[in-house]
Design a protein that fits this description.
The protein is mainly α. It has one domain. It is built from 8 helices and no strands. Helix 3 packs antiparallel against helix 4 and helix 7 packs antiparallel against helix 8. The termini are far apart.
Length: 190
């Protein structure tokens, strides 16, 4: 059970966003704005959602995001932060792939929120699959290596009884399809 908890913690979606944004920023941010873009991406894509989760956890004893209402609040607050991130990244002229990934975080979170009104799809699985697609667009096939985390994420979420296998599969499928489609359209039109 300890290993499952550890895997679940280290694959919390904002923690997966951390290396994803850093890798994209390091490879795409060739201008003098690299530091600014990196700070903004990390602020809104990592720090904001972690801070919101910690606020919810600290308000509650025992710690955890367990009720459907808490999950919806966390997703809503996350979508707000990601949307602010999109606006700031556009304002500073961020590389398009970084801005599109932040947009995907915002829109995918809203889709997850809508699904969670009546069911439960895995944000952890979506949080690995979505960034994988961004890395594939940035680096081709080697970007797909992040997908190697998915079996571990799925196992941990099912083992912790946080999700069923179908909820993990739906989260992963949505992450791949939604992020892939949004980035493809974004690169085509922007």
């Amino acid at each position: 059970m300890r290993l499952a908890r550890a895997v679940s913690v280290i694959t919390f979606p904002p923690l997966v966003a951390l290396p994803t944004f850093l890798i994209l920023d390091a490879s795409l941010g060739g201008s003098g704005r690299r530091l600014l873009v990196g700070v903004l991406a990390l602020t809104f894509g990592v720090v904001w959602p972690i801070a919101m989760a910690l606020l919810l956890i600290l308000r509650r004893r025992p710690a955890g995001i367990e009720t459907p209402r808490e999950r919806l609040v966390l997703l809503g607050l996350g979508a707000v932060g990601y949307s602010l991130g999109v606006a700031t990244l556009v304002a500073v002229g961020s590389p398009i792939l970084i801005t599109l990934l932040m947009f995907c975080y915002a829109s995918n979170t809203l889709v997850l929120l809508a699904i969670n009104l009546s069911w439960k799809a895995s944000a952890h699985a979506m949080g690995v699959a979505g960034p994988t697609m961004a890395l594939v667009f940035g680096f081709g096939a080697p970007g797909a290596l992040l997908s190697l985390l998915l079996p571990f994420v799925g196992w941990s979420r099912v083992r912790l009884k946080a999700h069923t296998l179908s909820q993990v599969a739906v989260g992963a499928a949505l992450g791949y399809v939604l992020t892939g489609a949004q980035i493809a359209l974004g690169l085509r039109f922007f």
